[in-house]
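User: Show me a protein chain along with its predicted structure.
Assistant: Here is one chain, sequence first, then structure tokens.
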Amino acid sequence: MTDGKILQNQASEIEFSSDDFKFRGDESDVLIDSNFASQSYWREVRARFFANKGAVVSLIMICVIMFFAFAGPSMNKYSYSEQNLEQKNFAPRIPVIEKLGIFNGDESMSTTSGNKKINLYKEKNTSDVYYLAGSDVLGRDIWTRTWMGTRVSLYISIVAVLIDMIIGLSYGLISGYFGGFVDSAMQRFAEIVNGIPRLVIVTLLMLVLKPGIATIIFALMITEWIGMSRIARAEMLNLKEREFVLASRTLGASHLSIIFHEILPNINGQIITQTMFSIPTAIFTEAFLSFVGLGIPVPQCSLGSLISDAFNSFTTHSYQIILPILVLALLMLSFNILADGLREALDPKFKDR
């Protein structure tokens, strides 16, 4: 009791002032970490992407190739279908650079007596003629035809991939959302389509239908949507039981609204990544069809048809195949590296790596 009275007396002697207490949550005292600034999701994606030097270089390379695909054919006076048999098999010749002793029209030919250097520009007295990448066996400018073929290949692949993206996304999202019998039936159909070799389907279509750009796009459209549908279905199965989806369903949102307004915006990263991976696949398929003679008809050209034409004269005029092969290889490599970079940038798991 004595101790209790002593504590009461000490407490009564303590005086409190207004400065002894502060309200919690005072904004003036909130501590902010100056080393971390809150960023939006897409700003973080952009920062991670540009930190990947390989992806940035690939993007620049794709932009450069696209620029030449549209501006390259107008850099000289030749058209992609113009023929001049008097100027066939001319080696590359570039103004100004020819003074350095390279790209001056000289070509080494292998003969029975050994290597022989010839210059058709001098032999045919055409000193004012320039073929930046040489001419082919029909006297057509390889530079113009290569970039025109690049334009055609890019157009076919991008259009086919966009159509496949629409079909595959819709198919996979609907299949995963409804589940049950609907999902089982749709997946069995997809397995049947995927079980038939793609090149067999595409080749048969090219043999039945009239060759052309539309036919190639249609052939690619039939076979390339399976991969996108599988990714869309997997993401739907992962997200359809989440709280925000259940909340939308509780509030009376329709099935289509939930699929395309709630689920679809949350899988943008996977869609972009799969699209980037699908483009080089479409480019290669189109090039293969053109190489085996099932591509677009002459006088139109694509990278595959250019490589096929130059392959016949590879041992005698090797320069005719170099530029188309180089452009095709750079396109496929750049799109694949770009897809890897986008996958790392869009995936939050790579944030701290």
